[in-house]
Design brief:
Number of strands: 25
Mean pLDDT: 87
Helix content: 25-40%
Largest sheet: 6 strands, mixed
Number of domains: 3
CATH class of the largest domain: Alpha Beta
Number of helices: 17
Strand content: 25-35%
Structural class: alpha/beta
Radius of gyration: 24 Å
Low-confidence stretches: 507-516
Shape: globular
Oligomer: single chain
Distance between the termini: 66 Å
């Protein structure tokens, strides 16, 4: 019997303008956690989509337990006990947790669904692996971390033996990441084999047995984690040394750019407010970070700040002008840039070209239109400049459809568009989510440059390393209130974690006031 449960041998896959996979060989052992590492657009998701049957390879073969297999569709992959959790979850938001888990694998009798046995199996699995879920909750009402549990339970419900996790920690809090790694280890101990795509080197060092590195569609090598380091992995991934520290000088705050006073935002899922009486300011030349565990009001706060939702009380002042009731475009024109939390819902029009997406906030300006008609040449020229400046990788340049790009390159396109607007305030929500270490280094440098150029930056992040490295001031939000203000030079990750979990209160900030 073969040493490997899965072998992908000499796989090649080409799309218009780009060779996503070029003669790649990947071998997975039984009971192994195997990481797949590479820059955005390196071909990782494409390779896993070939294994899951979403794409067919142009060349190469796939073996399971030493036998050549043909995987023409996800149904073929499921029959071979291969399951996949995609980077962007494949869930029906108006269905319940239980309905999503059994979808496509339903048991019925005389045309009626038999849910009792399915419910018992789901509850048994969730109890066994410590992934408790409410089977009757609607997907649209549960957190992103809980949605990921649903995706994993979908695989377990189908008794899958090979589990593919595409960027499984990109949307998780630090606590949820620890839980997921523990769950992955328990799977491996049972003999399940895991392939997981990630950009996070710390997680690879903690969780993986081996790591295969891709760069620009080519195989760089496979290494044993016990015999390598983060630095070596980053060199293999990007071909150069990476700095893991953000270089920035002391901040020199100027005039107040953003003033939030007594802001409250209603919740969509319960009667009490999602945000309650939050007040703070952000000045020129400083980076203020809102830290907190997901689900504590950050999303609703940013939605009210940027005009996506209406606040129930309080005021927002930008550059001395009250924008509390202004439209999204009016806020943008008043000097606000916004890198949104969900790049698909609020960041891009996925069926537009990259060039069209890059001028979404500016197409009405004289540079890009004449008497109501878009100046296509000007748009294309502008897009080419941003693509080159921000290293946005796309098969057909400005004409690439946004939907066809990798998640990381979609994110870089949004960052490029929002920073290039030269606004007075940059609201950056999870700006490096799903980016590789090279891109993270670049985006962090761009954010610091914005701060040093005298702009105000409001950062919202779940990544504590990012919070500590980038911030000049840190505000912790818990249950919709600002419960503490910290100087990153005088606090620790552990102290922040306590406040994020609701175990601490600091000074008078329980009322929501957080002034410098």
């Amino acid at each position: 019997m073969s040493e490997y449960v899965i072998e992908m041998l000499n796989i090649s896959k080409e799309f218009p303008g780009v060779k996503a996979n070029d003669d790649i060989t990947l071998q997975l052992k039984k009971g192994e956690i195997h990481a797949l590492l590479g820059e955005n657009g390196a071909g990782k998701s494409t390779l896993m989509s070939v294994l899951f049957g979403l794409y067919q390879p142009d060349a190469g073969i796939i073996k399971k337990n030493g036998e050549v297999v043909r995987i023409d569709s996800p149904n073929d992959a499921t029959a071979l006990k291969i399951g996949m959790v995609h980077q962007h979850f494949m869930l029906v938001e108006v269905f319940t947790v239980l309905d999503n888990i059994i979808l496509g694998a339903e048991q019925s009798h005389m045309g009626f669904l038999k849910k009792d046995a399915a419910r018992k199996k789901v509850l048994d699995l969730s109890e066994k692996y410590g992934m408790r879920v409410d089977p009757d909750a609607l997907i649209e009402d549960i957190s992103v971390g809980m949605q990921q549990r649903v995706e994993i339970l979908k695989m377990l419900y189908r008794d899958n033996e090979i589990l593919i996790l595409d960027e499984p920690t990109a949307v998780l809090t630090p606590q949820e990441i620890d839980e997921l790694i523990a769950i992955m280890r328990s799977f491996a101990a049972e003999g399940k084999s895991i392939l997981f795509i990630t950009h996070k080197l710390n997680e690879i060092m903690l969780a993986a047995d081996r790591c295969t590195v891709l760069r620009k569609g080519k195989l760089i090598g496979t290494v044993d984690i016990a015999n390598t380091s983060k630095e070596e992995l980053s060199r293999m991934m990007v071909g150069r040394d990476i700095s893991f520290r953000v270089e920035k000088g002391p901040f020199k705050p100027g005039n107040v750019v953003l003033e939030v006073d007594g802001l409250s935002v209603p919740s969509r899922v319960h009667k009490k407010n999602a945000v309650s009486d939050v007040s703070f300011s952000v000045r020129e030349g400083e980076i203020v970070c809102i830290a907190g565990i997901e689900g504590n009001g950050q999303t609703e706060f940013v939605a009210a700040l940027t005009g996506l939702e209406k606040a129930s009380a309080g005021s927002i002042t930008l550059n001395g002008c009250d924008i509390s009731h202004a439209s999204i475009r009016a806020r943008s024109c008043a000097g606000m840039s916004h890198i949104p939390e969900d790049r698909h819902k609020h960041g891009l029009v996925l069926d537009y070209t990259l060039a069209e997406n890059l001028v979404l906030q500016r197409y009405w300006q004289e540079e890009f239109q004449f008497r109501g008609f878009i100046r296509r040449d000007s748009v294309r020229k502008y897009a080419k400049r941003l693509i080159e400046q921000y290293d946005v990788r796309s098969g057909q340049g400005p004409e690439t459809i946004a939907r066809s790009m990798s998640g990381g390159n979609q994110q870089k396109a949004i960052v490029a568009r929002e920073i290039d607007k030269e606004s007075k305030l940059l609201v950056a929500v999870q700006p490096t989510r799903g980016l590789d270490v090279g891109a993270i280094e670049y985006i962090h440098r761009q954010i610091v440059l914005q701060r040093d150029a005298g702009k105000a930056v409001l950062l919202v992040s779940l990544e504590l390393d990012e919070v500590m490295n980038l911030s000049d001031r840190i505000l912790v939000m818990y249950e919709g209130r600002v419960v503490g203000e910290f100087d990153p030079k005088q606090t620790t990750v552990e102290e922040l974690g306590l406040y994020m979990a609701g175990a601490g209160r600091k000074g008078e900030n329980t009322a929501g006031r957080a002034d410098a």
